[in-house]
Specification:
Number of strands: 2
CATH superfamily: Winged helix-like DNA-binding domain superfamily/Winged helix DNA-binding domain
Largest sheet: 2 strands, antiparallel
Radius of gyration: 14 Å
Number of domains: 1
Number of helices: 3
Order of helices and strands: EEHHH
Helix content: 40-55%
Distance between the termini: 40 Å
Strand content: 5-15%
Strand order of the largest sheet: 1-2
Structural class: mainly alpha
């Protein structure tokens, strides 16, 4: 799957935040809801204009964004 078919960023929409194409639903909102335990069916019910592939595209987008990030843990 190519997440670019489902995620867009336009300065005129949500100040350029990545959103699900054709909506004003930001990718970070979807990721936050998934991280807080909401399920795919719950999100599909809450956002009828969003498709299941678009939700998975949000995960792929996040994965690609952080793929090359380097995080250094603090010594305890």
């Amino acid at each position: 799957m190519n997440w670019q078919n489902f995620i867009t960023s336009d300065p005129a929409v949500m100040f350029g935040k990545p959103v699900i194409t054709g909506t004003r639903i930001p990718v970070d909102l979807i990721l936050e809801k998934l991280g807080n335990g909401e399920t795919i069916p719950q999100l599909l019910d809450a956002y009828p204009r969003v498709t299941e592939p678009a939700l998975y595209a949000c995960l792929l987008f996040a994965s690609e964004i952080i793929k090359n990030e380097v995080v250094y843990a603090k010594a305890g």
